[in-house]
Amino acid sequence: MSAARNVLTPEALAMMDVIARTGSFAAAARELGKVPSALTYNVRQLEDALDVLLFDRRSRQAKLTAAGEELLNEGRRLLEQVDAVANRVKRVATGWETQLTIAVDGVLSSTTMFELAEAFYALRPEGVADHGVLNERTGPGTRLRFRTEVLAGTWEALVSGAADLALGVGIASDPQPGIQIKPLGEIRFVFAVPPHHPLAAVEGPLSEAEIIRHRAVAVADSAQRMEPVTVNLLPGQEVFTVASTQAKIEAQLRCLGCGYLPEPIVRDHIDAGRLVVKETERRPQPPRLGYAWRTGNGPLGLALQWWLGQLESPKTRRALLERHGSAQAES
User: Fold this and answer.
1) How many CB atoms lie within 10 A of CB 36?
2) Which end of the chain is more exposed for a tag (fewer CB within 10 A), N or C?
3) What share of the chain is helix, strand, coil (3-state, %, to 5)?
4) pLDDT bucket at 135, cuts 50 / 70 / 90
């Protein structure tokens, strides 16, 4: 195996590719600036190390055997991976992260997040392009990863290192050391039920005594290690727990329960009469949301800097909170 590793070099794999593409040792030698005997010797080394025949000696053309075809296919894949590693190293040297993970609370606009992703991938960083890393598909070359979280799970993803940037975290009065947090804004919640729900016919503001007699729908906190957060549930109330805000909306539309919903997300349902907003005697304060990132010891990567720059825009922050609608695809 060590002998095979010694001969399976990028140069040898590239040589195989040229021979197969040109169809002869002589043509490949001319392209590579070598004599045909040198290529023949190198192919013999490969065959001896692998203990297989790579070319059919009965043909005058450089015809690959089945083993040769396999080596060529895998060799091309390996060469692409080598190039990719080299390109990622160059990107790191220019300051662009290899990967950026963003944790997004489920109440924020996925449409806006995808539009920001489009703008990010459309970047043409001068430093990266000068190193020949860029093509029309890669943008700056940083791999983006979005993950949807709920309540404390968004914060946990950041502090655990699973995410580099967290959007929609609750603004703590005393943030942890090494973490920077800025306000994103407030999102208004409304108590809503479908028109055929018993609470829809109740006149006046709903009391807790009236609400507790009906099943609530709650979105499960996605935190795995931190203490999960419970919001707007009454002690002793029956609860139907679902995994996402979209699932909670679906459950309440089907009259499987009641509860508070983000007004911007259900605005279309309210306008269409599919949900009825009810006043409640206890009016919860709209949650104050923020975005946070780890400061670390060194300079921030250029990809994270770009996203933070976008979040400095009041228009972007407002879109994340407000830009929902029937045309929005669920993330």
Assistant:
1) 14
2) N
3) 45, 20, 40
4) very low
Residue type, 104: V
Task: From 79, 123, 98, select the one nearest 309 (Cα to Cα).
Answer: 123
Other residues' Cβ atoms within 10 Å of the Cβ of residue 183? 11
pLDDT digits 0-9 by tens, 249-290: 999 999 999 999 999 999 999 999 999 999 999 888 888 999
Q: How many residues does the chain have?
A: 331
Instruction: List residues bridging with 180 in a β-sheet.
Output: 293
Tokens encoding 165: 């940037």
- Asked whether the beta carbons of 154 and 292 are under 8 A apart, the reply is no
Q: What structural domains and CATH numbers belong to the chain? A: 2-93 (1.10.10.10), 98-186+288-322 (3.40.190.10), 189-278 (3.40.190.290)
Residue 81 has φ and ψ, to the nearest 5°, of -70, -40
197: closest CA among 147, 240, 256, 155? Answer: 256
- The predicted-structure confidence for 222-239, as pLDDT tens digits, reads as follows 988 777 788 889 999 999
Query: CA 195, CA 273: separation in Å to the nearest integer?
Result: 8
pTM: 0.70
Quick one: tokens of 104? 């997004």
Q: Are 124 and 306 in contact (CB under 8 A)?
A: no
